[in-house]
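Lab meeting minutes (informal)
Scribe: AK
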Amino acid sequence: MKTVVIKDNDLSFAVEVLKSGGLVGVPTETVYGLAGNGLDEAAVSMIYEVKGRPTVKPLSLLVADIEVAASVCADIPEAAKKLAEAFWPGPLTIVLPCRDTVPSIVTAGGDTIGVRCPDHPKTLELLRLAGVPAATPSANISDMPSPKTADDVLAYFDGKIPCVIDGGACTLGVESTIVSLVEKPYKILRQGALPEDDIKRVLGLK
């Protein structure tokens, strides 16, 4: 397999790869991700295999907007709407109850799902054109440094995935903050690029 590097704005090949069950290296503002159709069990299984990621570790989904999030989450509470309005697109992953339309391999058998709208025009366009949420961990071998450029992704996966979208260097270079709204009022599962104080402020807790 030859890994194609997409440098221009024509994403048609990447869209076809994603829709047909293949994997795409994608830029975000945090780190580069390894995206597969989050509703396709075989594609998600491939993500685990290529990364060497333990299947007991759940994946989150990249979504184009809050409407797509609602298609995979069983409930979008007011707190989630406030956070999405304030910080999406951006470095915040929100964990909510999951719909049964999401394959259990994505959630590692759990009943919650993390969703995020990434702040990168090319990846947002890919998600819109493909019309599916994308299971997207960082595009690295598990326990190796997270990739900040398309070249970093190639260093891990050249010849192992169909394509990488070159969106330049990540502007933040730090993973998203993960906040669970399943616990009340919330619980930070991973402190990342978005400060907790900003979450408290939007939720009226500060």
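Next up, CB showed the second protein from the same session:
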Amino acid sequence: MEAWFLESVATDSSRVTHRIAKLPFRIGRDAGADLAVEARGLSRQHAEFREEADGRLLLADLGSTNGTWVNRQRIDGPRWVVEKDIIHFGNAEFRLGLDSATRLVARDIEEGERTMLVPTGAKALSQNFVEHEREFRELLAGKGLTAAVQPIVQAQGGALFAYELLGRCEHPLLKQPPGRLFDIARKLNLKAELSAAFRQFGVPAVAPHLQGLKLFVNTDPDETFTETFFQSLRALRELAPPPALVIEVHETAVMDGAGMRTLAQRITEMGLEFAYDDFGAGDFGRMKQLFEVPPHYVKVDMGLIRGIDRASDGERKSVADLVRWTIDVGAVPLAEGVETDAEAAVCRDLGFELIQGYLTGKPVPVASLAGG
């Protein structure tokens, strides 16, 4: 038989569950409440779960001072609630669950045990739970993982040189763009895991269609210098035939000089190449790394490329200097975000060897490569 429960975060940061064993089920600071909670802003008799109908559960506020909130919206009267709703009683935060299949924690609060929650500020609702957490973890396990690729072409002549792998999501309950997925990952401290999942799915899917082309793959700063990351690259190199991977290093990781020297050595030993991503938009420290740890490619930030045909002489000279320094250290300069013929023409004049952007090719699903 299915059973409702509330999940909360205790003062030691562990997650615990509270079974809704009977209805009505009352929450408050009163020791006699079905769920007695020690938390700032909670009334003695705060709210109550009531009769279940058609698989739904009814929640009512009991005239509390600081209100009852469902998914961060204050309720004015009784409201039906569903599995995975995030509920605040004042500042006390819970997530509603149903049966063991939805659980992300193991320990139940014993009957009569008083609940102590993580203290929160008096003026803001806490955010201990992340919307779509269950679906996100399913994505990491492979459900809905997919990928796209964007062409990288030769600046002179436009011949296809490589693809960049882009992670995508087709989970039926988590249709979010990559940026939003990484927002969720950041809240759950799982950015490295999401980055790795996109590569582990995408590289094997694209590899059979490369036909000698290179494949640029993204990394997250949280993983760049970890042993787990290097092990994952070795595993990808064991694909048959082994793909020619170019590891894109995030701009924030470039600043770690010791880490970059180690990364450069280990990647080279594996027969791979690496690129500095979004380069040129930061401070001089990143420029210093260009000379101290030269990459194989430098992807110049699109903020420097967009509208470069209308830029001042000084702005163009700055980009020209960056291109020249890139070539001087033996790296290949790549212009990101090229959208117009005029931008492409200036990029060629400045010495860029590679171009990537909507002008030369928008991202396409990996599946579309099957017929190529």
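CB comment: The radius of gyration is 26 Å.
No objections, moving on.
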